Amino acid sequence: MLLAIYVTLIFYPQKLLIITALVACVAADVSHILPRSGEADAKILRQEQDVGLEGQYQWAIETENGISAQESGALKNPQSENAAQTAQGQARWTAPNGEVIELQYTADENGYQAQGSHLPTPPPIPEAILKALEYIRANPPPPERN
Predict the structure, then answer these.
(1) Region 123-142: what's the mean pLDDT?
(2) Nearest-CA neighbor of 75 among 66, 65, 85?
(3) Residue 34: is it exposed, middle or buried by C-beta count within 10 angstroms (0-12/13-18/19+)?
(4) Once rounded to an integer, what is the mean pLDDT over residues 65-82?
(5) Biased composition, Polar residues: where in the chain (predicted)?
(6) Greater confidence, 34 or 140?
(7) Per-residue pLDDT reduced to its tens digit, 3-60
(8) φ and ψ at 123, to 5 degrees?
(9) Does residue 118 carry a pLDDT above 60?
(10) How far is it, in rounded angstroms, from Cα 81 to Cα 27?
(11) Which residue, of 49, 54, 116, 139, is most buried by count of CB atoms within 10 Å of its CB?
(12) Does 63 or 19 have the greater pLDDT score?
């Protein structure tokens, strides 16, 4: 048995790497090092789930430490080739710095779109750049000749 393992590891070194990684993951229990806060032990105050047969669903959850979230979704155009799952929801929690975070989002064929005052926003486009873009739009370059 040991000879078979030894031969396998010699001729297939990637298996040795995989086995070593798996052993390291199993042995790397660091839960005793990390500080525990009451957040991990927060009780669920309210939890609701409703799943329909045609792709529609809704859920909500609220915990005793002030976290709340809810989401609803449905299958859009279920009988067509362009069927898509849609979802919209919101979440609320308190950040470690004490700021109350509120997030609203939608996810559909246009992608995931989140809104919240805590999310970064790009700076406004400088006036000179806006004027240059307008000039380019109004005066397109002539077509290239071959």
Answers:
(1) 93
(2) 85
(3) exposed
(4) 87
(5) 69-91
(6) 140
(7) 555 555 555 555 555 665 555 555 555 555 555 566 778 899 999 999 988 888 999 9
(8) -70, 160
(9) yes
(10) 48
(11) 116
(12) 63
Which pTM does this prediction carry? 0.56
Query: How far, CA to CA in Å, does 123 sit from each of 33, 117, 128?
Result: 41, 15, 14
Question: Closest by alpha carbon to 46, among 57, 61, 59?
Answer: 61
pLDDT at 106 over 90: yes
Tell me the CA distances in angstroms from 99 to 53, 60, 61, 95, 102, one per residue in order. Answer: 39, 22, 20, 5, 10
Report how far apart, in Å, the C-alpha atoms of 87 and of each of 78, 92, 117 are: 14, 17, 21
| Residue 8: predicted pLDDT | 52
Instruction: Confirm if 89 and 69 have CB atoms less than 8 A apart.
Output: yes
| Alpha-carbon gap, residue 87 to 115, rounded angstroms | 14
